[in-house]
Amino acid sequence: MAEPILEVSGLYKHYPLTQGVVLKKQIGAVKAVDGVDFTLDRGETLGIVGESGCGKSTVAKMLVNLEKPTAGSIKYRGEDVTKLSGRALKAVRRNIQMVFQDPYTSLNPRMTVGDIIGEPYDIHPEVAPKGDRRRRVQDLLDVVGLNPEYINRYPHQFSGGQRQRIGIARGLALRPEVIVADEPVSALDVSVQAQVINLMDRLQNEFDLSYVFIAHDLSIVRHISDRVGVMYLGRIVEIGRDAEIYDHPTHPYTQALLSAVPVPDPEAREQRERIILAGDVPSPTNIPSGCRFRTRCWKAQERCALEVPPLAVPPHLRLLTGPAVHDSACLFAEEKQAVPVGEAPDDHGEGSP
Amino acid sequence: MLLEVRDLHVEFRTRDGVAKAVNGVNCSVDAGETLAVLGESGSGKSVTAQAVMGILDMPPGRIAAGEILFRERDLLKLKEEERRKIRGAQMAMIFQDALSSLNPVLSVGDQLGEMFVVHQGMSKKDGRAKAIELMDRVRIPAARERVRQYPHQFSGGMRQRIMIAMALALEPALIIADEPTTALDVTVQAQVMELLAELQREYHMGLILITHDLGVVADVADKIAVMYAGRIVESAPVHDIYKAPAHPYTRGLLESIPRLDQKGQELYAIKGLPPNLMHIPPGCAFHPRCPMARDVCRTDEPPLYEVSEVRGSACHFWRECLHG
Lengths: 353, 324
What we know:
Protein name (chain A): Peptide ABC transporter ATP-binding protein
Distance between the termini of chain B: 35 Å
CATH superfamily of the largest domain in chain A: P-loop containing nucleotide triphosphate hydrolases
Largest sheet of chain B: 8 strands, mixed
Largest sheet of chain A: 7 strands, mixed
Structural class of chain B: alpha/beta
Keywords (chain A): ATP-binding, Nucleotide-binding, Transport
Oligomer: heterodimer
Radius of gyration of chain B: 21 Å
Shape of chain B: globular
Number of helices of chain B: 13
Order of helices and strands of chain A: EEEHEEHEHHHEHEHEEHHHHE
CATH architecture of the largest domain in chain A: 3-Layer(aba) Sandwich
Domain ABC transporter (chain A): 6-258
Helix content of chain A: 25-40%
Number of strands of chain B: 12
Strand content of chain A: 15-25%
Family (chain A): Belongs to the ABC transporter superfamily.
GO molecular function, one term (chain A): ATP binding
């Protein structure tokens, strides 16, 4: 198999909690990311799902070097990005770009669209010579489905969906290989979400991009991802191909998460079995011993408080074959259908651009 | 009928002109029934709710026409004093953002107890006892200790439970919930929606659920009203609408959401953007985005055609839409 484009191993991000003003004493840490491993292949989309506070956005920030990891490595084409600096780092950052969640705050209101999309060229002038920039920005506007004549307009003259297209155009400006998208459609209306998702799908094929797609909406993540990782309290608890996770989940947290998603089908209302989790997510300053999910898990036993389950194919499933055999960090992993299976959707017409 | 809204029109005066937020809404909800009002931002769903509750900012808002009948009385003809007696006691509202709807400098016990002190003239001490009872009822653990705590000491889900407790306090006949779970995570959303449905059954209340989430609607609603540009474009029992939508906008919405149970092809996307409420297109407001639009749609505003006794669609071509 070809070398993965990104390889993340043992990634940690702990924010220290201190007490006192002059003599700062560390009294603990917010363990936002607490041991994350995954790989991303070329042209692939890896979805990361999880509830708020699970550390998925912190992972995104570390991938694009907006946060320095406390420990661990992020290898881009075999080279550890966390150890690079200066020119070498700059070259890598060009190839890993980010699309942010909120299209209202991630664009500078005082800059024109042309300046926003063209700004990456100021930092990486080798990508586009000065005289060529305007044409390149107009090309980018065209690629994301905006009128190239809008180049001199300001962000407030655009709707939310159009602004997100501007954010995507900026992400594409340097022709990166990897795009990290953190909740790129969650601020948009339902009818506009589909437009932006279709755009991202199209751009992936056109530019041979690899995506790390972070979201809390499980349906959207399934739609766009080849593989999906489920995060809970700073760690990936289950990871696999989309059908493995959605149709054959083995980790109780994934099962609870999937069963809680409201499905737009009133017929399914009576037949489905809901797993309602008790309580809230524990604080990341005080992560439970052993399995971090055990405090809300209906299967938890004494062993779960003592042993940390590794993210691997569980031993008792190793001899089997089929989609239930994938990495799952649970000592008692067991397949369970969590999504009611509906009828196939009708063949509707082609989507608009 | 518990609540009946007839031909409601609401507009906002702004510097740039008049924005027509609600343009002739008719809907009703009975005791024990759940009506879901579905729409995107700017569709007028929240403004309708605010008009019913009587908490619309006026000015700039103005109710241009219509009737809001609550237990056969037109609320719009009442004096503010009389409305205040109804609000909270007979109808209550749950807002989306619990943190900004609660007072940060008062303990939750004080805020819950206040309902009884103000409306029923109870003493502060009795109010506190009632607050504990309510917190128990919405299943907040250790209510007796937590009654003294402040909103910031509760998690998002627990805060939304406090909002529900506050709405339930005086056992109203009608509850309006405006995106009650939008700010919550899915596992917590499931807890809160289940609690709300259970309490509704227990008290036999009417519930108006305002949301943009087609999944939440399918889970709890009895009937549904789909809003677009300030009008109800389709209204139907919930089972009918998901089986076969009778309006192209509803159809577009249903087809544009990805599915959890299978990986789909390219998503259907409704083209274009929702209209500017200051310049609502003539004829059918949806025609610039509609794949079925014809000449008549650009000129004639469709009435709410009767699809069946319990179902209406504001589309000239609802038959075509319904059958394929």
